[in-house]
Amino acid sequence: MAGGPGGKVDSIRLHEGKAFVDVELDRVVALRQGASAEISSLGLLGEKYVELVPGPVGAPPLPDNSVIVGGVPISFDQITRLARDIEIDIKEITQNLKTSLGGPEGEKRLETIVENVQLITEELRAIVASNHASVDATLANFREFSHMMTQLVDRVDRLVAANQENVTGGIANIRDVSGKLQTTADNLNSITSRIKEGEGTVGKLVQSEETHKNLNEALVAVKEGVGGLNKALGSIGKMKIDLGLRTEYLARRSSGKGYFTLEVDPVDSPRFYRVELSTQPEGKRETTNTVERTVFPDGHTEVKTTETHKFADKFAISALIGFRWDDFVLRGGLIESRGGAGVDYMMLKDRLRFSADLWDFSRPDFAAHAKLTSRFYFSPSAFVTGGWDDFLNIDRDADSIFVGAGLRWADDDIKYLLGSLPIR
Fold it and tell me: In sequence order, what E strands does 296-368 have?
């Protein structure tokens, strides 16, 4: 009550088809006539508790063993149905995004959108700069309007004072209407009494066995929905999810790379999955093979294959599966959109990490891309990194020392953010 504990729930029982909650209150808690109760939750995944409203100030105290009508909480069946509708909508959205943004045409659309946003930003900056005087004039008009509203309020106060007798007559009319409302309330009480006794169509519907049967079937359906929801939440609880952002500065190339990482780690399992999106300072390499077939007059055929390499400013994707044994980690899959593998060695309770990665074994005129990395966490969420990139191609001046830093949001941080979301 009032945001703090005021007692405890002693028992929950059924009586004549209704749920009764027995509550033991502390001695300092005082409830008055008109008090009410409602079932609430501590955040999205928190426990349920009974929220008490003490009743109007000045009302008589509520005696012991009184019954308070409680608010009906949201149905789990509605939550399950809403989750299913959201899943269908998300599938439709992802399908539309795949259709609209997939392939070369989709990438072109994205580049066009970014260019349009830049143009709009520049135009807005120019508009604000050229209309600075107009904005100042508008603010001055608002100040004048506020002054005029103050004068209008003063005039209304004087008008009310001059018509005090009319206001008194209006209050008398309100009292008359209140009396009529009391009569209406008495009529409603009579109607509800007849319904309780099973009289009339509505009374028979409420008191009939068929209605009870339908309610029991609805409760069974709600129970099944709750079981499905608990199963889904249990599956989520068996997975650990980490999110990360980091940036690296390549000293030789005077350029930077950015990374966004999602890592899924099943509980009680040595394997994990990692998906990473990264920028490429020199562009992503695309290889095109052109085949030319020539038939000569004597009947023999010659085939000529031309290989073309093109670098474009695009994102690269890493998708890895890894296994951990003690302090060693082995990884394999896609590294920056090319096949590759890596190994990690952990120290100081995983605060210090040394890594070696090797990928892109088919680089034209270059050896495979190799990278040595070290990372140190000076807090659970922040780290610094550094190392030597592309060190197998020193003779071609392709290697570079790099330094960087990043942030990490662990599974507990994500659960805390989700659990702090309020629901009504």
Answer: 301-312, 315-325, 328-335, 338-347, 352-359
